[in-house]
Amino acid sequence: MGNRGGSISWIPDERTLICKQCGSEQTFSNKYSYRRAMGISRNPSDLSNCKIENAGLCGKCRRSAKRNWDNVTDEYREQCRERSMKYWSKPENIENARLEAIKKMGYSSLEEYFQSDEYKSQSAYRTYRKAVDKRSRTNLKRCRPDEYKRWKNNTYDGTNYETGLTIEHKTPKSVCYEKGLTVSQAAHINNLEVIPMKDNIKSFKEWEQNRKIYEKMYGYNTYNKKFLIREEWWNK
Predict the structure, then answer these.
(1) Cβ-defined contacts of 26-33 (< 8 Å, 24+)
(2) Which of 51, 108, 140, 176 has the lowest CB atom count within 10 Å?
(3) Shared-domain flag, residues 97 and 50
(4) Is the distance from CB of 119 to CB of 109 less than 8 angstroms?
(5) How many domains, the chain?
(6) 53, 134 in Cβ contact below 8 A?
(7) Shared-domain flag, residues 83 and 50
(8) Residue 124 and residue 229 share a domain
(9) Are residues 134 and 156 in the same domain?
(10) What residues make up the domain containing 24?
């Protein structure tokens, strides 16, 4: 290696990055990829896809970094949606994704997975979830017709993330299933709320965060037995 041009901005031909967050090493196939990851290229076009706050991070840490979606345009969202639809419209991509997922779960083939107790359990939950969603729509239409109409006129369709409406379950369906609640109880009108998809996801994340906090506070078994569901909304 040598500074042939004698420039003070010369960058060595290094290719191994030591992540500033986790300390792991990542070796790139060429020095240009390394420079982009470090945010030190002399050519501005090389850094067009590099966020400066992620400079010096390995691939895993960059992917897990918190992202700010506040400035994302509707045009960009539509481009992402179109790319996703194009990719998942190909049967081979769906098949490869399914195979990769079940191999991570410890199964060697789809046939082996479909015969497992794990699949039967997940299948039962999917059936439960669909039944709750159907009953929830019926209850909302009967008990709160104005809210049902508002949801129906602006239902989330995969593109209107900030404004598209969903029927939120204040206590998540997964928790209702975990605690053995019936479909009628989970879909009770007192457990329903019409909110945008953006707020729906935020609400679920807050629920999960609070659950982790309370599990540490009371202990896993005590919290899940006594406090996981704090009220019997279906009896009100």
Answers:
(1) 26/58, 26/59
(2) 108
(3) no
(4) no
(5) 3
(6) no
(7) no
(8) yes
(9) yes
(10) 16-62
Tokens of 84: 């996703």
The residue behind tokens 């196939």 is 29
pTM: 0.57
**Same domain (yes/no): 175, 144:** yes
**Cβ atoms 177, 125 nearer than 8 A:** yes
pLDDT tens digits in sequence order for the chain, 236 residues long? 444 444 444 455 667 878 877 888 888 777 777 777 777 755 555 545 556 667 777 877 777 766 666 677 778 778 888 888 888 888 888 888 888 888 888 888 878 887 888 888 888 999 999 999 999 999 999 999 999 999 999 999 888 888 999 999 999 998 899 888 999 999 999 999 999 999 999 988 888 888 889 888 888 888 887 777 767 767 76
- 144/229 same-domain check: yes
In a domain, 11, yes or no: no
CA separation, residue 97 to residues 59, 84, 92 (Å): 21, 13, 9
Long-range own/partner contacts, residues 138-141 (CB < 8 A, 24 or more apart) = 138/187, 139/187, 139/188, 139/189, 139/192, 140/167, 140/189, 140/192, 140/194
Q: Look up residue 181 and give its DSSP letter.
A: -
Do 51 and 93 fall within a single domain?
no
- Residue 18 pairs in a beta bridge with 25
Instruction: Quote the CA–CA distance of 132 and 155 in Å, as a whole number.
Output: 18
Token digits for 92?
């081979």
Q: Measure Cα distances from 17 to 28, 31, 141 in Å.
A: 8, 10, 57
Question: Three-state SS for 166?
Answer: strand
Instruction: Give the list of residues 6+ apart from residue 116 with CB closer than 8 angstroms, or none.
Output: 107
